[in-house]
Amino acid sequence: MTEIAERQIVKPVSLKFMLGDLRLFSLEYETLVIDPHGLNRAYNAEPPGPPPQAPCDVVLLRSCPVSGPLPRFCWSRGWIRYVPSQYQRYYIDLSSTFDEYMAKFSAKSRATLIRKVRKFAQTFGAVDPPVRVYRHPAELREFHRLAREVSRRSYQERLLDAGLPAPDGFRERLADLARRDAVRAYLLFAGDRPVAYLCCPANDGALIYQYVGFDPEFRAYSPGTVLQHLALESIFAEREFSYFDFTEGEGAHKQFFSTGSVSCADVYYFRRSVSKTCMIASHLATNALSETAGRILDRLNLKTAIRRRMRLQQ
């Protein structure tokens, strides 16, 4: 990995060919990744192009704020611009108190959240659900050891290849972030057993929702929701951060807990070539097939059931 400039990094990036939640295969390219970050940034309808002296044949503007829908594919001065995904990037404004934040929920939603938290605590013989907060280097090493136990069992790792990284280098990165007070991590316990984790690096006053997972054996007790609720209570109490950033991708969990959203897109630029054009066409076709299959399963009320079955089989 090579640093080029602030928020510009050359590193391998995999373009995944997905059918729903199932990854078919991926193609890896050395890529100049430009991360705009910043929830208050916005571009015009057209995002910026690649830098004039881009050191790679692939440039990615990750989670780039946009003002409206973009075409999936177009030519751009010797480059192919490809936009495989556009989405709402959800966030939580942390400027209020936790009680004021909870007031945004309907009475029914608040009652459901509180009931899930109490059920978890009572089921495992505690007055309050035992959540531990980790922020110092030694604590982060212990967090990593325990969270890896959960990650190995989670569908995020087994199905989506998106668990908590295992290598020593990642542990050292966490320790470095902790030395700069730039990370918060949380573990939810059922007795002495860790069952859900949340690991959030900090950037520009925002906590980043980056690594999350839970033990599927405890799915009936909503460990992810319980941990999210209790972690937010701790985050609001700190008053150290401005936003909780759910980053790219949508989902019911993010939308439910959020207080707002920004329209974003992942914008790729590929230097023009026949092979890149064919690859993009194949990726477009795979995405179209996945979206069509998803709509059909939705109409048949089968999508959620199939996704649940796939997770249980992992």
Structure, described:
The chain is 36% helix and 32% strand. The longest helix has 26 residues, at 274-299. It folds into two domains: 2-90 and 261-313, no CATH class; 96-241, Aminopeptidase. Residues 1-6 have low confidence and may be disordered. Strands 1, 2, 3, 4, 5, 6, 7, 8, 9, 10, 11, 12 and 13 form a 13-stranded mixed beta sheet that branches. By secondary structure, the protein is of the alpha+beta class. The chain has nine helices and 13 strands.
Report a brief summary of the structure.
This protein has helices at 98-102, 107-123, 137-153, 155-158, 168-179, 223-238, 252-257, 274-299, 303-313, and strands spanning 2-5, 8-19, 22-34, 58-65, 73-76, 79-93, 131-134, 183-190, 193-203, 206-208, 211-214, 243-245, 260-271.
Q: How many strand units?
A: 13
In total, the number of domains comes to 2
Query: What is the assembly state of the chains in this entry?
Result: single chain
Q: What is the radius of gyration computed over CA atoms, rounded to a whole number of angstroms?
A: 21 Å
Number of contiguous helices: 9
Element-level helix/strand string = EEEEEEHHEHHHEEEEHEHEHH
